[in-house]
Amino acid sequence: MSATVVVSAGTYHLPFNRLVDWMEPWVQAHPDVRVVMQHGPGRPLPGAENHAILSHAELLALCAEATAVVLQGGAGGVMDMRQLGRIPIVVPRVPVDDEVVDDHQLIFSEQVSRLGLIHRATTRDELVALLNAALAGDLPTRTAAGAPTSGVSAVGDLLRELPRPASRSLRARRFASSARSLVRRGH
User: Fold this and answer.
1) Is residue 174 part of a domain?
2) Which segments constitute the Glycosyl transferase family 28 C-terminal domain (predicted)?
């Protein structure tokens, strides 16, 4: 097999069968592509290597080596891919058919798409076009791992300007220290 696509519906307690429905015809049309699916409580994807849940380490290892990564629109998965230097294709869950309780994934994915951190697919045709472009090498799926965004840089500048009074509580000092550490690492 020449290519691998990792698809993750996440570990959210509600199924994301629309993602499986959208992927199924593409998988059938590309039998030479290895597709690994973490489907959570949803249904397995025919033609894929299916896992209800993979360990975090296993999922990250697969994503690091994959030709393309397809995710639900949760912030955690997107940030994991950013740390790996991946630009995932993201299909946001919508508050229809019990996929998710509100439209936060639509809003989040729109914003991070504008920043160039993801490729967003809100229709099956968009998903198929993005997958085909990724496999053809016409869609960037990798970037510098952990490169800071302008928002992270701005927060770092603000944190560096904060006074460091001795009178701050231990909790406040620990928080500031942790935040400065994250900014230095480019999260």
Assistant:
1) yes
2) 4-136
pLDDT, tens digit (0-9, with 9 covering 90-100), for 38-78:
999 999 999 999 999 999 999 999 999 999 999 999 999 99
Q: How many angstroms separate the CA atoms of 163 and 80, rounded?
A: 32
**Domain count within the chain:** 2
Domain with residue 20: its CATH number is 3.40.50.2000
